[in-house]
Amino acid sequence: MLRVLRAFVFAFSLQSILLAQELPQTRGMHALQLDAPGGNPVLYAVSVPDGYSQSVPAPLVLVLHPGGPRSRYYGAEFARRVVEPALRQLKPILLAPDCPERSWSEAGCEKAVTTLMADVMRAYNVDRKRVLVVGFSMGGRGTWHMASQQPEMFTGAIPMAASTRDLAIERLGKQPTYIIHSREDEVVPFEPAEEMARELKKRGRDVHFEALDELTHFDMVSYVDALREAGRWIANRWKDAAPR
Questions:
Q1: Rounded-to-10 torsion of CA 84, 61, 183, 214
Q2: What is the rounded distance in angstroms from the CA atom of residue 168 to the CA atom of residue 164?
Q3: Residue 14 lies in a domain
Q4: 66 within a domain of the structure (yes/no)
Q5: Which strands form 177-182's sheet, in the order they lie side by side?
Q6: Do residues 115 and 34 lie in contact, with contact meaning Cβ atoms separated by under 8 Å?
Q7: Rounded to two decimals, what is the model's pTM?
Q8: Bridge partners for 14 per DSSP
Q9: From CA 139, how far away is CA 68, in angstroms rounded?
Q10: 243 belongs to a structural domain
């Protein structure tokens, strides 16, 4: 996973670094910066899909990157390599922040994500019934965390290669959740993820578990096909929902 990201040449143009209130309306991936009073700036990217119009509500996807050594706009790299190709058929706006703390569950991260989500929802015509959070590894655990902390905001979740360690099961799976995990994951064990999915289903939660074969934890880009299928599954859960 880290080898792929570090080897990847950041090919798309980092269009000018803007303040949060100046979010661009033009298509493409935009490198941005949130200036937090009294704190370090939070780097993030917003991807505006082809054909976006303020007159038509669009889905919003919060993209949470994995851990490891982080380059600037690490979240944007993860979105560009994995999430955008997989979820392109949803025509979503993507919000891909860099985690400003050690993990997505820390208070500083939650505050930054909440602020950015609010900024994006003000700047774009977002369909509030189609708001998805997706992440891999550390970002997958962050996906579980964010979805459990803000079930009124997120209407779908896709955790990949993720642990739910220390998270209360009573708060998990409150929205349609598609879990993806490889049997060959040598970093985050497969069996606890499978057991969690099984237990959530027993509790009547709308959860699907996708088991992959022959992929190690570091084969992150090979999750694209499974993530694409997850996007279709989430879209089916959304299809009867009207914009609010």
A1: 0
A2: 8
A3: yes
A4: yes
A5: 15-18, 28-34, 42-48, 93-97, 58-64, 126-136, 156-160, 177-182, 207-212
A6: yes
A7: 0.90
A8: none
A9: 11
A10: no
In order along its 244 residues, the chain shows pLDDT tens digits of 544 444 433 333 333 344 435 799 999 999 999 987 667 899 999 999 999 999 999 999 999 999 988 899 999 999 999 999 999 999 999 999 999 999 999 999 999 999 999 999 999 999 999 999 999 999 999 999 999 999 999 999 999 999 998 999 999 999 999 999 999 999 999 999 999 999 999 999 999 999 999 999 999 999 999 999 999 999 999 986 554 4
- 216 within 8 A of 185, measured Cβ to Cβ: yes
In the numeric block, which tokens belong to residue 213?
A: 């074969």
Residue from 17, 243, 18, 24 nearest 120 by CA? 24
Tokens (6 digits) for 66: 């994995």
| Amino acid (1-letter code) at residue 73 | Y
Helix (H) or strand (E) holding 194: helix 190-202
Is residue 244 assigned to a domain? no
Which residues constitute the domain of residue 178? Answer: 2-238
In terms of C-beta density within 10 A (0-12 exposed, 13-18 middle, 19 or more buried), how is residue 130 classed? buried
Residues, the chain, total? 244
What's the token pair of residue 57?
């509500």
Bridge-based pairing state of the strands 93-97 and 177-182: unpaired
**CATH number, domain at 128?**
3.40.50.1820
* Residue 198 burial (CB count, 10 A): 11
User: How many folded domains does the chain comprise?
Assistant: 1
